[in-house]
Specification:
This protein has about 450 residues and is an alpha/beta fold. The chain has 20 helices and 9 strands. It has 3 domains: about 220 residues, NADH-ubiquinone oxidoreductase 51kDa subunit (Rossmann fold, 3-Layer(aba) Sandwich); about 80 residues, Ubiquitin-like (UB roll) (Roll), CATH 3.10.20; about 100 residues, Up-down Bundle (de novo design (two linked rop proteins)). The structure holds flavin mononucleotide and iron/sulfur cluster. Flavin mononucleotide binds next to β4.
Amino acid sequence: MPHALETRVLLEHAEDPRLATLQGYKELVDGYSTLEKAYRSMEQDEVLKALEDSGLRGRGGAGFAMGKKASFLPRGDMEKYLCCNADESEPGAFKDRELMQRNPHQLIEGIAIAALAAGIGRAFIFIRGEYDRQADILDAAVLEAYEAGYLGEDILGTHRNLELVVHRGAGAYICGEETALLDALEGKRGNPRLKPPFPAVQGLYGGPTLINNVETLSNVPRIVAKGADWFRQYGTEQSPGTKVVSISGGVRRPGNYEISLGLPTRDLIYELAGGPLPGRSVKAIYPGGSSSPVLTAAEAMDLPYSFEAMAEAGSMLGSGSVIVADDTVSIPHMALRTARFYHHESCGKCTPCREGTNWTVKMLERVVRGEATPMDLDIISSVQENIMGHCLCVLGDSMAMPVSAMVRKFRGEFEQVMAAGEAEHGIDPHLVVDLSPEALGAAS
Ligand SMILES: Cc1cc2nc3c(=O)[nH]c(=O)nc-3n(C[C@H](O)[C@H](O)[C@H](O)COP(=O)(O)O)c2cc1C
Ligand code: SF4
């Protein structure tokens, strides 16, 4: 049930299982009435303008204005595509899963209206391979929508068409990166492409393509139904609307909460998620999923939870996934765990990411084993600097940003862990290089 500090728009009636059916969606939230209005009586530009005026920013990570992105697609009769990004594989993110599971028709209606705004006739939902249950729910909902005439040819007798296919991924995080997603949809190995050209110009099968996140597209029906001013009553000037925030880690009530953007981060953690477990305190948070630079509790708590406030604090709102580390969490171990994830998921296409994630894992393993020296911390930081901004996609940066923030903000803790590990294990003799003249002479 909703908490008093929540503002439920996308999650309205989410607790009612009837919402997942076509009939329930129509009865509970007047579902598909906006699609009907838009397809029957609105011009493409009118729909597009409502989206642009709303200031809706992408909810998948980068926060780019959705209406503006849709406006980049060229006009004309060429084949254009819409891809809904439902890959949701970043550690800490689980809001799209809930949106698809509880209200699949809201997403389908949003896709159909966004397709109208950009003159698109073919759409795909690319869903994370492990989301079997949600993919089944979507398959059933898409079938219902086809049968009711909301999808397919000549939608509601308007001579407008939209084909929608649910495509299951094979469980690779990198396929959430928009161009890797396109390659995967085309049946290739999911590797990011060089940009430009951007997908809006040359995307799926070489055609102009609009790619948006599940939550972004789920916002579309209400914006078109109620208008940009209605949407802007929520959130802040630069972060309009509500946001479904996934909160996990050391809190009493982890879960998804829908808030008006700009709510104090303290309320998010202490009121909605119930604060840390008994006897513990918050040490640090990832404010926007595992790729966001960590903030210390002191830095984070008084910040409004918005795109701009997180950016000003040197981090990011990302996908809106808050991971809370309490005082029992070892930051060096958290850094290692983060690095291992990105190393494992790196596609290996470019050197700074492929080698940098590998080196970082190896160096952090030395840190926690007590085999590193303080100079190694500087080397770790320097490796992160050499990754950031030098890769084909931002997966490399996604490891470098949080790891470098952890080393910078918790250096003392890294040094303590190194000292404790050294006291416990001693230094591995294989790692000590003997630079004495005798040894060097023998080697030569
Ligand atoms: C490695 C990587 C993984 C990503 N995973 C996702 C994802 O699972 N879902 C998502 O919506 N965006 C993901 N993104 C961001 C997408 O590339 C893209 O920006 C987003 O889907 C655009 O939608 P939006 O504008 O509605 O946010 C990922 C980016 C990177 C670099
Ligand atoms: S940054 Fe990493 S994941 Fe992205 S293209 Fe380069 S190697 Fe692949």
